[in-house]
Amino acid sequence: MLQKVLGLLVWTLIAGTEYFLYPAFGWVMFVAVFYWVLTVFFLIIYMTMTYTRIPQVPWTTVGLCFNGSAFILYLIAAIVDASSVTKELDSHNYNSWAASSFFAFVVTSCYAGNTYFSFISWRSRTLQ
């Protein structure tokens, strides 16, 4: 739940600025929106218990791959976001970009935690 709220915050903070003038922020927007949509999609699958109706899919592996890729790409996006924030670019967007950078790192840490727990779940599933 925390990733959805903070991920939404990341991309709304950037979307409210002239991010399209700077390609680095376009990458951050792509990662934030892409993983926000996928996280909502997996939440719906979990809430409706659809995963129980499709036993052919190795859901623990899917969760591990999803969270691992989200962690890696969000980490890259957060670093790109943080390194692109300067007062010289556009001073009235500075606060939004700085806040989006902070929240991108928070979302990255959330996905890192989820990756860890997904790995523990996957590992216990493969040992059985």
UniProtKB/TrEMBL annotation:
UniProt-listed InterPro entries: MAL, Marvel, MARVEL-CKLF_proteins
Keyword Transmembrane helix: yes
Entry GO MF terms: structural constituent of myelin sheath
Pfam families per record: MARVEL
GO-annotated biological processes: myelination
Domain MARVEL: from-to ranges: 1-123
Keywords: Membrane, Transmembrane, Transmembrane helix
Compartments where located: Membrane
Membrane-spanning residues: 27-47, 59-80, 100-122
Coarse class of the protein's main subcellular location: membrane
GO cellular component: membrane
Recorded topology in the membrane: Multi-pass membrane protein
Protein name listed in UniProt: MARVEL domain-containing protein
Organism field: Mycteria americana (Wood stork)
